Amino acid sequence: VEKKTKNNPYKVPMKIYTTMERSIQDGINTVLNNSEWYWRDDKVQSGIAVVNVQTGAISAIGAGRNRSGERTFNYATDAKRQPGSTAKPIFDYGPGIEYNNFSSYTLFNDEPWTYTNGPSVNNWDMQFHGLVTTRYALQYSRNVPALKAFQQVGPKNSQKFAYSLGLDVSLNKNSENYRQLKGGGDNVINEAYSIGGVAEGFTPLEMAAAYSGFASGGYYTEPYSVTKIEYRDTGEVEEFKPGKERVMKESTAYIMNNILESAVTSGFAGGASVAGSHVAAKTGTSNFSDDALKKYKLPSYAVNDLWTVAYTSQYSVAVWYGYESAEIGYNINGGGHKEAVTSAVMKYIPKDTKGWTMPSSVVASQVEKETVPAKLPSANTPSNMILTEYFVKGTQPTEVSERYQTLDDVTGLDAKTSGNNATLSWDYETPTVLTDAYLNKYFSQSAFGHSTNNFISARKNYNNNTLGTLGFGIYKVESDGTLTLVGFTTNKTYTYTGAGDTTLVVKAEHSKFKTNASKGSKVTFSLSGGGVGVILAMLDGGLSVEANAGNYTEAGFKYIYYGTQDITNSANITYKILDNNSELGEYSSKTEFVNKMNSLTRGKYRVKYI
After folding, report:
1. Do the strands 557-562 and 582-587 form a parallel or antiparallel pair, or are they unpaired?
2. What are phi and psi for residue 420, nearest 5 degrees?
3. Among 557, 556, 554, 555, which Cα is nearest to 595's?
4. pLDDT: is 548 or 78 the higher one?
């Protein structure tokens, strides 16, 4: 009131109409005043701010604990603290979506990385997770992807975006670049801002208001607490109507809301999860410097500021938890205290059962994992390699990934016969996506960072272990039109032994992953079969079978010919078991033969088929 009217309400009689929502304010007071376990001790403090995202009105303020007197230090509006990872949507990914068309899929390689001026940056868990999406990077608060995003966006656009959300990031408020910031200005922030290394820090009210820009669909309104003043002596009325300004595209706000809502359901919720309510949130932690750890003799696991900024489509809530100074105390990351405070506060925020409606400027699209740029999955892409992510309309993938696409058929298929043998030959060129030249070029793209060789090695291992060897399946076309596999080879020739009129199909395929096998090329020929009285037979499964004792099964025959006559289904077979040429039994029943085999001591045996 003093700022807006230049009058002191303690001296000038007036009625003040505030934006306070009593039920929310009373709830926050209850949280701050009780003695639940989530208050680590009597000295720990918290600042809480709740803003109506549609109007900018301040709905409630949690000024701190154990306070007395009028107009004392307010931890919600006066305490500027390092924001930690709550800075990432504002300085990295928000401007990345707005200016660089990032999607929720945009990939970053989480790997050892450095600031432009040399020092390395670490993740909170001191590990690296490899290729991750923007969604994953935000869900699990990875520092390396955040820095990479900032480096792509650039400090100029990062600063411009933050300033539009009400965050004063200028180091010199009298400088020319500060006055011209909305137009771009000069760079005054550095790469440390990407992970919350902010010069002065921000208050909970500033953070709640900044995030309301996402929650509202792209609008920012400077937070306010008074709507009207009525002077008692004169009856004069003074009203205050805040200005609402669009500061980002609707698509930027929606994609960020979608990502941060998934952070609550699948990542770091920070205590923000509320059953039956659509809530988005980002957590943050700021660390002590090495000098501070030494000066105050703090343990290595001590942390300074703990944050959760949570919001619905109606309210934005910022919770800061910590100590006034390191001399008074320190936090433990993961202790659950701040999460419990946030959870208690969120119980007083009206539930949002509607959430955010996707605007026409955003497209949801399936994407095949690890594609750069993003590509659509093919009909053969395994389900565990498909994501659904959100893109600014016009930037969604339109090309289909070739990685799992159906293989080309062989060409020039020919068969040369001699007696009961047919020698097949053909031509085939290895798919481009499996060649070293392709892999070297593909994994040299900037998204893969410094790890080109690692990605090439990983892709080759995947191909070997999951797809298997690239080769050719030889299939016989049966009388009913079905195909029976008769062989697999990595060569471009194959010798088939049989009898009579035969049609074979050659398919380019992997030895393990058959889904993208080629449609197949056919060749038909006739084999003499050797004449009457000659039996030609082939076992189904090969001449050597390994089985655990008690687990033998009999595969039988692929085919049996008597001359040119197919007697596969009519031949009577006798089974004779031999051990070092000593006969162990002869059986005309397949069942009795298998039972005998499974009763034998584990070892090597011969089977003679008559």
Report:
1. unpaired
2. -100, 15
3. 554
4. 78
* DSSP letter string, 142-194: -HHHHHHHHHHH-HHHHHHHHHHTT----S-TTSHHHHTGGGT------GGGG
| 189 phi, psi to nearest 5 deg | -110, 160
Q: Is this model's pTM higher than 0.85 or not?
A: no
List the 606-609 sheet strands across, edge first.
Answer: 582-587, 575-579, 606-609
Grade residue 187 by pLDDT with cuts at 50, 70 and 90: low
Angle formed by the axes of helices 204-215 and 250-266, nearest 10°:
110
Pull the structure tokens for residue 309.
């900024």
DSSP designation for 511:
S
Cβ within 8 Å of residue 10, ≥6 positions away: none
Alpha carbon distance 243, 226 (integer Å): 14
**pLDDT exceeds cutoff 90 at 112:** yes
Closest CA to 286 of 160, 200, 345, 369: 200
- What digits encode the pLDDT tens for the residues 580-600? 878 999 999 999 999 999 999
Cβ contact 386:366 at 8 Å: yes
| 193: three-class secondary structure by DSSP | helix
Tell me which H or E stretch contains 81.
Answer: none
Helices (DSSP H) in 184-239: which residue ranges? 204-215
| Backbone phi and psi for residue 87, each to the nearest 5 degrees, phi listed first | -75, -20
